[in-house]
Specification:
The complex is a heterotrimer of chains A (86), B (121) and C (164). Chain A contains three helices and no strands. By secondary structure, chain A is mostly helical. Chain A has one domain (2-83). The longest helix of chain A has 26 residues, at 30-55. By secondary structure, chain B is mainly alpha-helical. Chain B has one domain. Helices cover 70% and strands 0% of the residues of chain B. Chain B has four helices and no strands. The relative contact order of chain B is 0.14. Classes of the chains: A mainly alpha (86), B mainly alpha (121), C mainly alpha (164). Chain B binds chain C through residues 15, 18, 21-22, 25-28, 30-31, 33-35, 38-39, 41-42, 63, 65-67, 69-70, 76, 79-81, 83-84, 87-88, 91, 97-98, 100-107, 109, 114-115, 118, and chain C through 16, 18-23, 74-75, 78, 81-82, 85-86, 90, 92-98, 113-114, 117-121, 123-126, 128, 133, 135, 137, 139, 142, 144.
Chain lengths: 86, 121, 164
């Protein structure tokens, strides 16, 4: 029972990643690409959480924390660059 | 306990998926930011809460709850900031709003010289 | 006022330390207190945004109420947006409306703007003096007074109690 739920949610997460990737490749403007990338990042944070649960290692969550921090900085810097402030 | 966690995880990943559908279907950048990055906030938070419930057997030995809490608080603080900055950048780039848009008070006020255009400070 | 800034940032940092280490071991707690205290004293003497927080029981109670109200709004708005996204005809009606806020304190405005942004369907695009320009996915009222009533009041009432 437990495993089925995990598999279903992993499938949904992979679909989400794919949608983000499509938006990332297709997006007409640069902001669209950044939005797709941001969505992919959040999905992969959840994915790292699921993997940490499956392999039973809490230490993987530290990776998620640092990854979230870096992606936040990345989005801010790209937006700043678009506005011409960098 | 385990069941509660699984329900939360399912709701969370479903919410993430609807965010992705919105990301694909919406007509312009602003609506994409609306659905794409913010519906996913609740999805991520729900999933983390669910995962935290699912690991309840090991709460005593290993630090699961604290790390999940840090992640949740972190997402709650950073996500609105980053999406706001993105949207402002899109508006400063003058990406047109979609045809469905009914009203744009910001543009009216810029034209009436109530305030100057948003740009870098 | 400076001590209060330092004290509140010290508390926030210390909570972060405890969440990450998750232990009450004497050595770890002492290191944490030393490190966070040093950081707060060195860098947060001028964090004026913390000086508006009130440390009274009433403020704490209202913070709690605010969290509950906010979570309720978040879930409600999420269900609404999910319905819009999944329905085949895509019933959206976007636009940018202008609302006014009565709040004066910086921290309260920050929380208000972030709450509006986090609730799906509404989005703070620009802040100018007392006016917030909000991108709304389903514009019900384009006039300022009605939109303010709809979007801002429910959060503002509680925030006024919290920050005065």
């Amino acid at each position: 029972m437990g495993n089925i739920v995990i598999y279903i949610s992993i499938t949904m997460l992979i679909l989400t990643l794919l949608a983000g990737l499509i938006r990332f490749v297709k997006g007409p403007s640069i902001v669209d690409r950044v939005v797709g990338f941001d969505s992919m990042t959040i999905t992969s944070l959840v994915m790292i959480g699921v993997i940490a649960y499956l392999s039973n290692r809490a230490i993987y969550l530290d990776v998620a924390v640092v990854y979230g921090l870096l992606s936040f900085l990345g989005v801010i810097i790209v937006a700043k660059y678009i506005q011409g402030g960098l | 306990m385990e069941i509660i966690g699984q329900i939360f995880l399912l709701i969370g990943s479903f919410s993430l998926m609807t965010a992705a559908v919105g990301l694909l279907r919406m007509p312009d950048v602003y609506n994409r930011v609306q659905t794409g990055t913010k519906a996913s906030t609740l999805g991520a938070i729900m999933s983390f809460i669910g995962l935290a419930f699912m690991t309840y057997e090991n709460w005593g030995e290993v630090n699961w709850v604290g790390r999940f809490l840090v992640l949740v608080i972190f997402i709650l603080i950073t996500n609105p900031v980053s999406s706001h900055v993105l949207m402002r950048a899109a508006y400063a780039m003058k990406i047109p709003l979609s045809k469905l848009t009914v009203v744009d008070k910001l543009k009216e006020d810029i034209n009436n010289k109530v305030l100057e255009e948003p740009k870098d400070e | 006022m400076k001590t209060k800034n330092i004290f509140i940032s010290f508390l926030v940092l210390l909570i972060g330390w405890f969440l990450l280490t998750w232990t009450l071991d004497m050595k770890s707690v002492l290191i944490g207190i030393g490190l966070t205290g040093m950081l707060a004293i060195l860098f947060c003497g001028s964090c004026t945004i913390f000086s508006e927080i009130k440390l009274t029981p009433k403020a704490f109670a209202y913070t709690f109420i605010y969290l509950i109200v906010f979570m309720g709004e978040l879930v409600k708005a999420n269900i609404d947006v999910t319905r819009r996204v999944l329905s085949p005809s895509l019933p959206i009606n976007p636009g940018i409306v202008k609302v006014e806020t009565r709040l004066k304190s910086k921290m309260a405005r920050l929380i208000l703007a972030n709450s509006i942004t986090l609730t799906p369907g509404t989005f703070t695009l620009e802040v100018h003096d007392d006016a917030f320009y909000i991108h709304w996915i389903d514009v019900k009222h384009a006039e300022e007074a009605q939109a303010t009533e709809d979007l801002v009041r429910k959060f503002e009432k509680i925030l006024e109690e919290m920050y005065g």
